[in-house]
Structure formats: structure tokens, C-alpha cells
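pinned: reference chain
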Amino acid sequence: MKAFLSAVVVMAAIGIGAWAVLNKGFDYSSSAVYTTETPGAVRLSPGDGTRPAD
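pinned: its C-alpha cells
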């Protein structure tokens, strides 16, 4: 049981660490889409997210 709980804790730590590393350079907030200077930040074209009827 102790080994199982240790494995769960290690997997959680690895998952949180991987999430932090992968999301460090990405900024998905709408206010930063066009203004951020972060390399690798997601940039959307002005037409993205609009409905055809708009």
C-alpha cells in the first residue's frame, strides 16, 4: 500500500511539473493574444472566433 501511494504522489508531481513546463510559454488570454511579446505565444487571426452571421 505504501508503494502504491508513493507511486500516486510521484505521478501527480510529474504531471504537475510537465503541465507547468508545457504551459510556461503559452498565453491564451484574450487580452494578450495580440499584445504579448512571449516567444511561442498563441496568436489568433482577427477572424477567428467569429460566427458567420456576425
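why pinned: The chain is about 40% helix and 0% strand. The mean pLDDT is 74.
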